[in-house]
Predict the structure.
Amino acid sequence: MDGIILTPLKKIYHPKGDILKGITKSDTEFSEFGEAYFSVVNQGDIKGWKKHTKIISNLIVVTGEIELVFHNEHTKEFFNIKMSRNNYKRLTVKAGLWMAFRGIEKHNILFNLSDIEHDPDEAVINDLNKIDYRWSNI
């Protein structure tokens, strides 16, 4: 989908606990640092729909498994992916796409490094039933 870049990330084995790479300033997807935060989503719960109007997000699932869904309202196209430590990638998402995500496991944490600080007036929020997407059974 236009506006989404999926980047495989390195997991470095360490006997006391692995090192999980995230993003470096030399990565082509990195534009600028604005804010970094973690979003927890409970098993079976869905957060969304949200559309950023300016923010570029870099999303990484650090704990559990999360199904992320993106919708382009102009092309009617959907993109979905389940991300976890087993499918360890960074998803770079440009502004203008609707986003929702659902927790698959008991504990799920999504890391977001965005290029600008949070501004409550920057995003548009929509009810889950406003975009016709059929979530798979978990």
The first strand starts at residue 4 and ends at 8. The chain has one domain: 4-130.
